[in-house]
């Protein structure tokens, strides 16, 4: 796993890798891919992504783990240059905690991070 300990800390990942290990849900949280945010925590999945790869992130997808589709590129027409960061915010009614993240770089390499508990992660740092 290329993530440093991810509970309320910085997580790191590298291009061309797939991260499949996420922090275990809290004992009171239901098991499975549809772990919901604790009561009163809806919208707490917001996080910062920091690009330290040496490449430009040309697209970034965030999808609930329970979905098979990556959905839209949340950067839209924007890119995330090396050294830049972006705030990723969720609608207040978002309740799922487990999300899959995918970064695509200017050289067409990708990083996929599966089953990330965004209720416990506040920053994701992409590294080479």
Can you give keywords for this protein?
about 130 residues, mainly beta, Immunoglobulin-like, four-stranded mixed β-sheet, about 35% strand
Q: How does the SSE layout of this entry go?
A:
Blueprint: E1 10-13, E2 18-19, E3 47-51, E4 57-64, E5 85-88, E6 98-105, E7 110-117, E8 123-126
Parallel strand pairs: 1-8, 2-7, 3-8
Antiparallel strand pairs: 3-5, 4-6, 6-7
Protein architecture, described:
- The structure is a single chain.
- This protein is mainly β and 128 residues long.
- It has a single domain (10-21, 36-126), classed as Immunoglobulin-like, CATH 2.60.40.
- Helices cover 0% and strands 34% of the residues.
- It has strands at 10-13, 18-19, 47-51, 57-64, 85-88, 98-105, 110-117, 123-126.
- A hairpin with a 4-residue loop joins strand 6 and strand 7.
- The chain starts with 9 loop residues before the first strand and ends with a strand.
- CATH topological fold name: Immunoglobulin-like
Strand order of the largest sheet: 1-8-3-5
Terminal-residue CA separation: 14 Å
Structural class: mainly beta
Mean pLDDT comes to 75
CATH class: Mainly Beta
Task: Give a brief outline of the structure.
The protein has no helices and 8 strands. It is an all-beta fold and 128 residues long. The chain has one domain (10-21, 36-126): Sandwich (Immunoglobulin-like), CATH 2.60.40.
């Amino acid at each position: 796993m290329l993530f440093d300990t991810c509970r309320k800390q910085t997580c790191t990942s590298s291009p061309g890798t797939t991260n499949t290990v996420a922090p275990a849900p809290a004992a009171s949280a239901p098991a499975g891919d549809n772990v919901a945010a604790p009561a009163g925590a809806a919208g707490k999945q917001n996080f910062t992504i920091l690009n330290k790869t040496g490449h430009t992130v040309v697209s970034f997808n965030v999808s609930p783990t329970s979905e098979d589709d990556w959905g839209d590129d949340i950067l839209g027409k924007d890119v995330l240059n090396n050294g830049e960061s972006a705030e990723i915010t969720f609608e207040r009614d978002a309740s799922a905690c487990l999300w899959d993240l995918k970064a695509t770089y200017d050289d067409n390499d990708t990083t996929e991070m599966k089953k990330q508990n965004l209720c416990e992660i506040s920053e994701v740092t992409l590294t080479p």
